[in-house]
């Protein structure tokens, strides 16, 4: 992608201190160079949170639906590239969401991570309106075991890249949680987006297909 394009976007920048985030910049020119720190144990423990549904066994994420912002998308597994940075969903399929498969699966104990583009060189992408979500909205993830993990949004935050809170976003809270991430803030032709949009949600129900 051309970093000078007004629609150039990638995935969220790496959080400071993350082992997979060295040298990250938000909205980097090539999506394969965009970095999302994996949901590994944070330097500080997040405060345990009670409530919600009991954890599910591990099962790959296959589909994401968010009725409040009319999202329905297939989910692909993502890993780290040779630079230990998270690969992005392909830009030629801007409606595709990526799940960090080395971390917890949605509904499993821990904090699962789903990422998507805000836009690409060709126009809007799947997470363009992610910041429009509100507490109480539902996020549904269909899993390979034919269960749908239903998450309830707790909050939506936008963090400047230099103030990204690793522990709050990626730390284990004591219940199954989900984070949805994309780029946010202002856009600069050279530096890309200035911030990350993060949706915090926790597992509240499970449906069997």
The arrangement of helices and strands along the chain is EEEEEEEEHEE
Number of helices: 1
- On the 0-100 scale, what is the average pLDDT? 80
Query: Uncertain segments of ≥5 residues (pLDDT<50)?
Result: 1-46
Counting DSSP E segments of at least 2 residues, the number of strands comes to: 10
Proper CATH architecture:
Beta Barrel
Secondary structure: elements and pairs:
Blueprint: E1 61-66, E2 71-78, E3 97-100, E4 111-115, E5 119-120, E6 123-124, E7 138-143, E8 147-160, H1 166-170, E9 177-188, E10 192-208
Parallel strand pairs: 2-3, 4-9
Antiparallel strand pairs: 1-2, 1-7, 3-4, 5-6, 7-8, 8-10, 9-10
Short recap of the structure:
The protein has 209 residues and is mainly beta. 2% of the residues lie in helices and 36% in strands. The strands form 2 sheets. It has an 8-stranded mixed β-barrel. A two-stranded antiparallel sheet has the order 5-6.
Explain what the structure shows.
This protein is mostly beta strands. The chain has a single domain, classed as Sortase (Sortase, Chain: A), CATH 2.40.260. The chain has one helix at 166-170, and strands at 61-66, 71-78, 97-100, 111-115, 119-120, 123-124, 138-143, 147-160, 177-188, 192-208. The strands form two sheets. The chain has an eight-stranded mixed β-barrel.
């Amino acid at each position: 992608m051309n970093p000078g394009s007004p629609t150039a976007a990638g995935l969220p920048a790496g959080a400071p201190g993350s082992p997979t985030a060295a040298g990250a910049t938000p909205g980097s020119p090539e999506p394969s160079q965009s970095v999302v720190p994996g949901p590994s144990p944070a330097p500080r423990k997040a405060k345990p949170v009670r409530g919600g549904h009991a954890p599910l066994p591990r099962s790959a994420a296959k589909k994401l639906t968010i009725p409040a912002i009319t999202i329905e998308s297939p989910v692909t597994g993502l890993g780290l590239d040779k630079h230990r940075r998270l690969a992005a969903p392909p830009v030629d399929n801007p409606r595709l969401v990526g799940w960090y498969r080395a971390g917890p699966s949605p509904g499993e104990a821990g904090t699962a991570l789903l990422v998507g583009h805000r836009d690409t060189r060709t126009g809007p992408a799947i997470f363009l309106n992610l910041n429009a979500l509100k507490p109480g909205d539902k996020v549904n993830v269909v899993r390979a075991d034919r269960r749908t993990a239903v998450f309830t949004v707790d909050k939506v935050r936008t963090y400047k890249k230099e103030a990204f809170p690793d522990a709050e976003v990626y730390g284990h809270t004591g219940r199954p949680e989900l984070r949805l991430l994309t780029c946010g803030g202002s856009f600069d032709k050279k530096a890309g987006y200035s911030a990350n949009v993060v949706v915090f949600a926790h597992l509240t129900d499970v449906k069997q297909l």
